[in-house]
Amino acid sequence: MTQVFVVNSGSSSIKYQLVDLDTEKAVVSGLIERIGEPGGGAGDHTEGMRQVLDALGPDREIVAVGHRVVHGGPRFSSATLIDDDVEAEIDRLSALAPLHNPANVLGIRAARAALPDVPHVAVFDTAFHQTLPPEAYTYAIDAEVAEKYEVRRYGFHGTSHEYVSRQAAVFLDRPLESLKTIVLHLGNGASVTAVDGGRSVDTSMGLTPLEGLVMGTRSGDIDAGVLFHLARQAGMGVDELDTLLNRRSGLLGLTGTGDMRDVQEAAAQGDEQALAALAVWRHRIRHYIGAYIAGLGGLDVLVFTAGIGENNALLRRRALAGLEFLGIEIDDDRNELSSRVARFISPEGAPVAVLVVPTNEELEIARQAAAFA
Ligand code: ADP
User: Fold this and answer.
1) Measuring CA to CA, which residue among 306, 320, 371, 333 is closest to residue 164?
2) How far from chain centre, in Å, is Cα 345?
3) Which of 37, 147, 217, 287 has the most CB atoms at less than 10 Å from its CB?
4) Which of 128, 132, 130, 133 is nearest to 165 (CA)?
5) 79 and 178: one domain?
6) How many CB atoms lie within 10 A of CB 289?
7) What phi and psi, each to the nearest 5 degrees, are found at residue 189?
8) Which residue CA neighbors atom 3 of ligand 1 most closely?
9) Is residue 99 part of a domain?
10) Could you report the per-residue pLDDT of 288-317, keeping only the tens digit for each?
């Protein structure tokens, strides 16, 4: 029995799974919330971690602990065994991900203290995208400023994009090295990645997870000049602008709700705001599909994953409608079949294999961590 304990630590929560790598199933999964809050279950992450491990009981055989870490900066291009130096570097990278990395470090410290005898492995959301070529990761700003402050495109959801692009090749029974793939990860957060022969060559998120597609509450792509305009004309400060773009924009900003199911329901009843928001959402996705086909020089596989991508046939169809001239077709019967496993939604023999592949970031983290056991 090879079990890996997978930890996703937030500022006031610990999400965890005990993954059995022989069956590839979660034996236990759970969430401790409101850590450190009055009436919450745990005073701090150390206490929370102890509760989690107590709940797992004594018959566990944990061979490694995999930690989801949001930002790996320019240094981490693959899963990394955590020692004091690596822990300190993840903490230092908090400058690039002030909401996420400090919380990840709290989880790492608590878990290392509670389970000192097994390898702890950091699996970074950015690592898969470290293969981006300079022309794809460079922002055209003053090079010295960029270097000093580590400003470049990093990309996120890397664990998901890596897992899904590999699973797609397995499903198709074709060598990953031979495939040009676009992965659409459409969840509450959303990103697109161009994968060439198993390597990420372009991705829509940037220095932070704000860039790219229209998301639940994030704007995605925007002219940076909008910020100067609002600072000058509306007197908005940095924190207000951060909140505006990260928490009050996207579907929420356009319609008043950030949940795609609600937006779609409203659209189905003819709500004009919802219809307009869906049009913007779709426009942005198609913009990236076109750009990435050009960048890849062709396309073999297009994959949908995450909450919206896995579950919403209508939005998948809308996103791809009219792209038949690129070899992208959808078979409505296949598309509407609901299932929890990888499947085709393009017709038999279509030039581009359009797939739905459920993502499983915990399993991927567990696999990568187990390599250090
Ligand atoms: P996260 O990005 O938080 O990991 P998920 O990948 O689980 O999220 O996706 C969550 C999002 O998926 C929610 O915003 C929800 O609205 C959306 N979603 C889930 N099921 C459907 C569905 N059937 N139709 C449209 N949206 C859906």
Assistant:
1) 306
2) 22
3) 217
4) 128
5) no
6) 21
7) -90, 150
8) 188
9) yes
10) 999 999 999 999 999 999 999 999 999 999
**Which pLDDT tens digit goes with each residue over 212-267?**
999 999 999 999 999 999 999 999 999 999 999 999 999 999 999 999 999 999 99
Between the CA of 259 and the centroid of ligand 1 the distance, in Å, is 7
Q: How much distance in Å is there from the Cα of 118 to the middle of ligand 1?
A: 34
pLDDT value for 54 = 87
Distance CA(330)–CA(350), nearest Å, equals 9
Residues 181 and 323 in one domain: yes
Within a domain: residue 350?
yes
What's the token pair of residue 226?
């909008």
Look over the chain and give the mean of its residue pLDDT values, rounded to a whole number: 96
Same domain, 266 and 209: yes
Q: Which residues are annotated as a binding site for Mg(2+)?
A: 8, 361
Q: Which residues are catalytic?
A: 125
Q: What is the whole-number distance in angstroms between the Cα of residue 260 and the centre of ligand 1?
A: 7
Distance CA 61, CA 207 (A): 38
pLDDT tens figures, 102-119 = 999 999 999 999 999 999
Q: Tell how far CA 203 is from the center of its chain.
A: 11
Domains identified in the chain, total number: 2
Which residue type, as a one-letter code, is found at position 77?
S
Annotated binding residues for substrate = 68
Domain containing 321 equals 173-356
Give yes or no for a contact between 185 and 309, defined as CB atoms under 8 angstroms apart.
yes
Q: What is the pLDDT, as a whole number, of residue 40?
A: 81
d(CA 14, CA 74): 26
311 lines ligand 1 (CB under 6 A): yes
CA gap 181, 170 in Å, rounded: 13
